[in-house]
Design brief:
Bound molecules: guanosine-5'-monophosphate, magnesium ion
Strand content: 25-35%
Mean pLDDT: 93
Structural class: alpha/beta
Low-confidence stretches: none
Largest sheet: 6 strands, mixed
CATH architecture: 3-Layer(aba) Sandwich
Number of strands: 10
Length: 180
């Protein structure tokens, strides 16, 4: 692994694919232990960033489960804050279901807050959040994050689904923005 360039920026190797696989395995087992074999969860991957994580996660999940994906889109609503988010692509009825959100990374927690807002009126039985990466130094909310793969420094990363302006999602390893 060596330094790579995406658009105008350099990124250096940060987390190898083998390490990532370990975190994914750890998370899948953590959720499985928590839910047990009898509870059949519906995993919801938040696109685009979590597509790779979600695909690997369900392969490690030892029990029956459902998997679906949604996208969070902004539109200009007529509420006080101006912009509100809504879900694109959710066709399943979630009432009475155990829903586990699969996120690539939680940074400020703004997205997480939107997710909690959106799922509040879906009458789910249980809502839990699993994130592969978490940046504790920037997290500003007092919202629960149930399962965390790994906490990382407050530096921009790419790879394994995460992009810099559209590029880098296909990288198997994680790279970190290089400081000049
Ligand atoms: P938050 O709303 O928690 O601030 O940020 C969540 C979203 O911002 C993530 O789902 C991801 O799309 C993006 N994000 C946050 N930190 C990073 C990062 O280090 N690299 C990349 N590529 N995206 C990030
Ligand atoms: Mg995301």
């Amino acid at each position: 692994m060596s330094v790579i360039k995406l658009h105008d920026k350099d990124f250096e190797p940060y987390i190898t694919k083998n390490k990532i696989a370990k975190y994914v395995q750890y998370l899948a087992n953590l959720v499985a232990e928590d839910l047990g074999e009898k509870e059949t969860p519906i995993f919801i991957g938040i696109l685009n960033g979590s597509f790779m994580f979600a695909a690997d996660f369900v392969r490690e999940y030892p029990y029956d489960c459902h998997i679906t994906f949604v996208k969070l889109a902004s539109y200009n609503g007529i509420n006080s804050s101006g912009k509100i988010k809504h879900l694109v692509g959710l066709n399943e009825d979630l009432e009475g279901k155990t829903v586990i959100i699969l996120e690539d990374i939680i940074d400020t927690g703004n997205t997480l807050e939107e997710i909690y807002k959106i799922f509040k009126d879906k009458k789910v039985k249980k809502l839990k959040i699993a994130t592969l990466f978490f940046k504790p130094d920037v997290f500003r909310k007092s919202l629960p994050i149930d399962y965390i793969g790994r906490s990382i420094d407050d530096k921009f990363i790419v790879g394994y689904g995460l992009d810099y302006d559209g590029l880098g999602r296909n990288l198997a390893d994680i790279y970190q923005l290089k400081e000049n």
